[in-house]
Amino acid sequence: MASSLPYIVISRGRWKGRGDIIRNVLVLGAGLVARPLIRYLLEVGGFDVTVASRTVEKAVQLVEGHPKGDPLAFDISYEMDLLGLVSDHEVVISLLPYTHHPAVARACLEEGKHMITTSYVSPAMREMDARAKDAGLLFLNEIGLDPGIDHMEAMSIIDELKSKDVRVQEFVSYCGGLPSPEHNTNPWGYKFSWSPRGVVLASRNSARFRKDGRDIEVPGRELFGSYVHVPIAGLGEFEGYPNRDSVPYAATYGIPEARTVLRGTLRNKGWCDTWKGLHDIGMLDDSPANAKTYRGLLEGLAPGPGDIRGRALKLLRTRDNWRVLSNWEWLGLLSDIPIIEGSSRIDALSVLLETKLNYAPGERDMIVLEHRFGTSGSEGKSTIRSTLIAKGIPDGDSAMSRTVGLPAALAAEMVLKGELKGLSGVMIPSVPAIYGPVLERLAKMGLSFRRSWT
Fold this sequence. Notes:
The protein is α/β, with parallel strands linked by helices. It has helices at about 35-45, 55-65, 80-85, 100-110, 125, 130-135, 150-165, 195-200, 250, 270-280, 295-300, 310-315, 320-330, 345-355, 400-415, 430-445, and strands spanning about 10, 25-30, 50-55, 70-75, 90-95, 115, 140, 165-180, 205-210, 215-220, 230, 235-240, 260-265, 365-375, 380-390, 425, 450-454. The chain has an eight-stranded mixed beta sheet with strand order 1-4-3-2-5-6-7-16, sandwiched between helices.
C-alpha cells in the first residue's frame, strides 16, 4: 500500500519515502521526554533515527544536526502516510498521546514492525496481543518510569524473594516527579516536567487498591482526600495518594497472596488538599468557563453574597481549607487575569498552571520512587525498601525525561541487537530477559536503587 501524501524532508534531503532505505528507529513525537531517548540511540547506540513530529522544529532541535538523525514533519492523522513511514523502519517508538498508540500498532502489524511505548497498556492495545504473537512481533509497553522502572525493580525483588521461598504479604509503591528540594520555590510544591494538561486530567482518575485483604475504591472527586504521609529516608515526609487500579498488579507481579497492594503518587505537602479543593468547587470538569477572568470564574463557581473568599471556603471539604485558598490566590484564581475565550474550566486551569508552575533556567527536578515489601518466610517477617532518587541536570536533561526516555531507548537497542528474540505479543517489562539488562544498564547511568531490610 503506497503512501498517499508526500513526506516532508527537513534534514539532508535523502528521505524518499516508503521502501527507499530501511532505517533503524522511528520515534513518533518530540515532547518533553524525547531528548535523552533520541540522543542515546544516536550517540551511544549509533543507530539511524527518524524523529517525526507535527511541530518539526522540535524534531530539528532534538536531532541537533546529527548525521544519523532525520527530523520529519508528520501528522498522525494521515494513516496512509503512517503505513509508509513505519514500513521504512525496524522499530517504532511511539511517544504520542496514548490515544494514538492503537493506530501506530495497527500500522506495525500490517508492516511487520516491533513497537515500543512508555504508556499503560490500553484495552485497544491488549486486543492486538494474539495478532502480534502470530506475527512474531514485540509490542512492549510501560517501559518508562511509572509505568516502567517501577515494574522492573518490583519484579527483580519479587523474583528474588520467590527463589528463596519468601512470600510477599504487602506491596506498596509510590512515585513522584517533583522539584529538587533546593528549587522547591512555590507553595504548590510542584513544577511541570511533563504535560500540564496531562497532570490535570490525571487528577480526575478514580483509584482502587487492596488494603488488609479488602479492595477499596476511591472515586475521582475523593482521590485527593485519601492521602497519607509517606516518609522517604534523607528527604523527609511527603503526601501519597493511590494511582489508578492497583488490584490487578497482584496478578501481574505474581503475588496473589499479598493482602495489601497499592501503587500511588508522591507529592510535596499541601498538594492533595489544594487539588481536593479544586474538585470540591467544580474546577476540574469540562464545562465552559463562562467568565472573562479567573476571579469571574471563581465567582461563578461560588455564587452568593459576601466576599468570594468566604463563599469559596464554605464549599471546601479539605484538611486545611485556608492553605487551599492561599495556594489558589498565589496561582491567580482570584485575580483579574483574562481567560482565553471559549476555554473550559479545566483548560483555563491548565493555562494558569503552565504559566506559574514552571522551572526557571538552571533549576532541576527530582524523581522519587520507593517500593515497600512486607514479607514472611522461614526466617520470619521483614520489610524491604527499595528507593530510587534521581535529580535532573541543571540546564540539561530533566530527571523525568531521563527516567522515562532511557528505558525505552535501551529496550529499542535490545530489540535491534536481537537480545529479545523469542518475546512477542503485547507485553510490559516484567520478565527477567527485559528487566535484568535494563536495570543493570540504567545503574551504570546513575539511575540505581538503594535497598534496605528491617
